[in-house]
Structures are given as C-alpha cells and as structure tokens.
Specification:
The protein has about 675 residues and is mainly beta. It contains four helices and 32 strands. The protein has a 22-stranded antiparallel beta barrel. It starts with a helix and ends with a strand.
Length: about 675
C-alpha cells in the first residue's frame, strides 16, 4: 500500500516546483537565486506552521537538507554538502560556530520573528561573502524602512503537543521619514519529544531565548547609518544522537552599517558594514547516566569583519562589487576528570587557538543581451591564512606533524558563468562554475575530535591541499497563468575531496572508539542532484504543488558518500478564500539503498507522512488575530531518515496551535 501511494504521487509530481514558501521571480535572475520568504513585518500566514523553526523553513527548499542530531539546531546541507563546503551568513556577516560537534550552526542564532527571507545561491555563484563549493545561504533580517510615520506591535504564541513546546514572542517597530527601529524577541521551551511508537526520546529538550534589534537614522538626503544587534542564548539543550548535551550556547552579534544612495548615474547603491560576533559553547555530560569519564568541553569563536559593496548599472550591465574580510579566532578545550580524585585531570586543546584571516573581492555582472537573453558572470578571489599563536597548542599538533609551521596561507578563487533565456513563459538556462575552499579548523587543526556517528576519533591535517570543484548546472521551466513547472539539475566534480582515513598507528583517546581517523583527501568525488517541481492552480482558491528530488554521491572508487538523500517527495493541496485557509500535505522518502557503510551509515526504510492544518484571520479595525492549528505525522508513524545522526527516530504525531496578534 505504501509503495502504491508513493508511486501515485511520483506520477503526479513530474516537474520541479520550488518548495512551499519559495518565491518565484517572474522577472529576471530566477535561475540565479532561490528566495524563501519567512516574514514581511509579521510571521508568515501562508506557512503550514508559522512559528516553526528557521530549520523547518529552510528544509522546504529542494537544494537544502537538514542534518539532525536532536530537536534543536540542525545543520543545513546545501546540495548534499555539509557546512565545511558551504557558507551561511546573517545579513552578509561571517559567523563561525564554537562547537567541534557542530551543535551550533549559524542558523541557530536567528528566529523566524526577526527574519524576512533566506537567499539561497547554489554552487560557486554563492561566493559573494567568501569561498564556497556547495553554495550559500544569506539570512536576511526583517527591518523597517524610512517612510510615513507608523508604529506596529505584535505578539506570537504557540504550543506543540509532541514535546510540550511553548513558544512566545513579541515584536515592535517604529518609523518616520528620518528614523526607524525594530525590536523583537522569541522564547522557546521544549521537553523531550515522543517518537511514533510512543517512546520518549531522552535528552531532546531545549530552552532558547533570542532578542534582535535594528535601528537606522537618515543623516543626509542620501546617507543612512544603521546599527543592529542579536543576542541569542540556549541552555539545557539535549542531543539524543550524541554522547554529550549543551549547557550553554550563546551568541552576541553586532554591526554598524553606513549606506549611500548616490545621485551618480553609475553607482546606484553603496553600503559598508563593520561587524563583530562572539560565540560561546559549552558541552555537558553531567546529566548522562553511566559516563565513563566526565569531560568539560567549552569552545569560543570570535569574528571581526567588514564588507563594502556597491551596485551599478551601465547600459545593459547590472554590476556589483564586494570587498570583504574577517578575522576569526577559534578555540576549544577538553578537560577529562578521572573517577579517582587522586588522579590528575587531563587537559588538551581540541581546537588549538586557530586565528584565521581572510580578505576577498567578489565581482558580479548581469549582462542583459536583449529582452529575453541574459548572461551572468561571477568571480571572486581571496587570501586565506591560518595561524596558531599558542605555543602549547602548536606543540600538541607537532606530536603528529613535527615539521608543522606556525602559519599556513592560501589563495582561494571562485568563478561561475550562467546563460538563461526567458520568453513567453518558457525559461531555460545552463551554467558552469569552478571554485575551491580551504580546510576547516577541524579538518586542518582538530585534535582528537570524537565522531559518534562513525565511532572514531579524528585528527586534523594542516598539510591538506585546497579542495576544488568543477560544477555544471541546467534547468528548464514553464510558467503560465495557472501552471508552473521546473526541472533543474547540478553536477559537482570535487577534487582533493576531504574525508577521514583510518591510521592504525594512532591510539584513540575516547573510551570505546574503534580507532583514529586522520583527515586526508580522496582523488575526487562526484555529487549529482536533480529536482522536479510543479504548481497547478486547480481553482482560483485551490493550488496543488509538488516536489521530488533525487541525489547521488560517489567517490573515485564508486564508494557511496555519506548523508546523500535518497529520493524524496512532497505534495500538498492548499485552499485559501478570504480569511480562511487550509492545507493537506504528503511527504516521504524512498528506502535509502545507496547508503555508505564505510562512513558508518546504515540502510533506512522508506516512509510516508500525512499532515494537515487550517487557519483563520480575525480582523478588528486596525488589529488582527491570525490562528493556525494543525497535525503533523497524523498516522503517528515511527520512522527515521538518512539525515538523523545515529538513526534517532523522528517525532510522532504532533498537534500544534499558533496565534499571532498584530496592529
């Protein structure tokens, strides 16, 4: 029966649609960037669950999958590539997590209440703020603009039954012709969730608080100064897929921007931003039963950076230039306390106080050949340098690399070219790209990092070469009044593909670990993605949208790569009339046949889920209340996916209610 249902939906889903919440640009550049709309001065009312996490919004994209180690702070994979090969920014600011186990991705430091949209660039075209191979996500925060005087206020609240999650938030904004300010906060409090077999998943609770503010002042007819700050704090965060939890994940992110809108014909917009962020992360195992040896594992990441970019139009050229740079310090420690108090504690640096300096330049040109044909070129180059100033930490790495130097510098480069034609609703395009990246702090300098998925300790390798990728992509779409369909694909040939290889000469430090892996490079690996989407307006009030995605990843010896999605599908019927809307959706994955046993993966069964929701807006003059109620995993399916670390089961049946009041 399951296969029959799945095949039915696959037959219906025959062309590629951008996921729910994705904005289709009927003008130009629709092939360049995907935009997921999150808020427009208030929480999205068209979202199936408006107060869902940022992770759930991003998961709607055909380009993005989310790797889950618990119920909180999922790791975004772009084109099936992890964060080492991709780039995530907040308003163009570079931010680096402070956790060696990736418990604090950049996406965890923002909330749906302060985000306007997520701009997703696939492949090398996403190198505006640094080098990338898989692509980039820029999380653009919601803010007011100068205009007629206006004051707004809103309150959000929600509840989810599967983990007794309580959500509460508030936002206020004010603007006039010379000043604007936006302030909002969101608080989430969740207990352990329950899987589909009525099994409580221990250590899946979390508490999170986020506050954000942006304020701008017009200082001249065409000049503006804007200051912004984000403070995010999560504590008592459980990670059921990992051997440790988190007692504190804290971020302070601030920036100051100066913007000019010149009257000059050539330069249309010029903005310069200075920013600083401080990330603190503390792993904790004190609440875990039968811990062989207690450990403290704090980490810190501090980044100071800038960018200065301007946009200009010249005849048929729409150009932009971005100078950007940052200085980051990444430090992580581990202290082990033996059960016998007479024995001394053991201390080591897991990230040996690595200081990274980057300075880059990015150029983009949209060349409008005629009313139908466009060429887009991007190019970037950057200087990247890692340095270890701490003598003790440096000597720790020299245990494995006696001739290791204190500093390592690299030149990074990205290039992409895209051709597109759009006429009478038929659009098609093709593109190529080349780019490289430097090894991450963990890959280059990690010291006995335990990977609980593979059950190996990992050691960095400062001698790794740049990983580089050759990309090809193509798409074709058809858009009519009541119909939209698109098929798109991408192919990546990645040389010097960085993975861990077993070194039998080293002894593991983690109790129960199988051995030690050292980061090394394969000759190459390939990743292929194709997505097919459609949107049909069945009636003026009724839309049917669908999506299916296929991916395949292998190395040069035809060994499957880890965390490559099996065939996934999604379809929904959305009805909206006046103040009322309702939706019924189906989503699922095929069986994960092409799993990677070499990297610790296991086969995962197929699954199919049914979800439903309905919403209504009550208007009271200038005020309004929007309510949405729904159910997820209606049949209470017990399932896990390829993207669940150590195959932890997903949540079972969940009833939710979201309420938004605004005036």
């Amino acid at each position: 029966m399951k296969k029959t249902i799945a095949l039915f939906f696959m037959t219906a889903i025959y062309l590629n649609f951008s996921a729910q919440g994705t904005q289709h640009d009927s003008l130009k550049h629709s092939n360049i960037q995907e935009v997921i709309v999150i808020g427009t001065k208030e929480i999205s009312q068209k979202q199936a669950k408006p107060l869902s996490s940022v992770d759930e919004y991003l998961e709607q994209s055909a380009t993005i999958n989310m790797l889950k180690r618990g119920a909180y702070a999922w790791e975004p994979l772009i084109n099936n590539m992890p964060t080492e090969r991709t780039l995530v920014t907040i308003d163009g600011m570079r931010i680096f997590g402070a956790c060696t186990d990736k418990m604090d991705p950049v996406t965890s430091y923002v909330e749906v209440s302060n985000l306007a949209k997520a701009e997703i660039s696939s492949g090398q075209g996403g190198s505006a703020h640094g080098s990338t191979i898989g692509g980039s996500i820029d999380l653009v925060r919601e803010k007011s603009s100068l205009g007629d005087e206006r004051f707004r206020f809103g309150i959000n609240s929600g509840f989810e039954s599967v983990n007794n999650q309580k959500v509460f938030g508030a936002a206020t904004s004010y603007r006039n012709s010379r000043f604007y300010a936006d302030i909002n906060f969101m608080n989430r409090d969740a207990e352990n969730y329950w899987a589909g077999n009525h099994q409580e998943i221990p250590f899946s609770q979390f508490r999170k608080f986020n506050i954000s503010g942006i304020s701008g002042v017009k200082i001249d007819e065409n000049k503006l100064i804007e200051a912004s700050v984000i403070y995010d704090k999560a504590n008592d965060v459980g990670y059921p897929a990992l051997p440790m939890d988190v007692s504190l994940a804290e971020a302070l992110i601030g920036s100051l921007k100066f913007q000019i809108l010149p009257a000059d014909f050539f330069i249309k917009d010029w903005e310069t931003k200075l920013y600083y962020n401080n990330i603190t992360h503390r792993m904790d195992d004190t609440k875990r039963p039968a811990v062989p040896i207690h450990m403290d594992m704090p980490g810190w990441s501090k980044t100071a950076g800038y960018y200065s970019k301007f946009r200009s139009d010249f005849e048929r050229h729409h150009m932009s230039l971005n100078l950007n740079g940052y200085y980051n310090q990444s430090l992580a420690e581990m202290t082990m306390y033996p059960a016998n108090p007479a024995e001394s504690a053991m201390f080591m640096y897991t990230w040996p106080d690595v200081k990274t300096l980057y300075q880059g330049i990015f150029i983009e040109d949209h060349f409008q050949i005629d009313d139908f044909v466009e060429l887009k070129f991007t190019a970037s180059a950057g200087y990247h340098s890692n340095k270890i100033d701490n003598e003790f930490a440096l000597n720790s790495m020299r245990i494995f690399y006696p001739d290791m130097t204190q500093q390592k510098s690299r030149i990074l480069k990205n290039f992409s070219a895209n051709f597109s034609r759009n006429q009478l609703g038929l659009e098609y395009g093709i593109g190529v790209g080349f780019g490289d990246r430097a090894p991450s702090v963990s890959e280059g300098y990690g010291f006995y990092l335990f990977n609980s998925f593979e059950n190996y300790d990992y050691i960095g390798n400062p001698y790794l070469k740049n990983e580089n990728s050759l990309e090809g992509n193509a798409y074709i779409s058809l858009k009519k009044t009541d119909f939209f369909a698109k098929i798109s694909s991408s192919y990546f040939h990645i040389s010097n593909y960085i993975v861990g290889k077993i070194n039998p000469e080293f002894i593991p430090m983690t109790i129960g670990a199988k051995g030690v892996k050292v980061y090394s490079a394969l000759d190459y690996a390939t990743i292929f993605n194709v997505s097919l989407d459609s949107e049909i307006k069945v009636l003026p009030e009724l839309k049917w949208t669908s999506q299916i995605v296929y991916s395949r990843g292998k190395d040069f010896q035809d060994v499957n790569l880890p965390f490559i999605s099996p065939v996934s599908y999604f379809t929904k019927l959305h009805f909206e009339k006046g103040r009322f809307n309702t939706e019924f959706s189906v989503k699922g994955n095929f069986k994960h046949h092409d799993y990677s046993a070499v990297y610790g993966e296991k086969p995962v069964s197929d699954f199919i889920l049914f979800n439903a929701n309905l919403g209504y807006r009550f208007d009271f003059g200038h005020s309004k209340i929007f309510t949405k109620v729904g159910a997820e995993n209606i049949l209470n399916r017990n399932y896990t996916t390829y993207a669940d670390w150590n195959n932890i089961p997903r949540p079972g049946r969940n009833f939710f209610v979201n309420v938004n009041y605004s005036f």
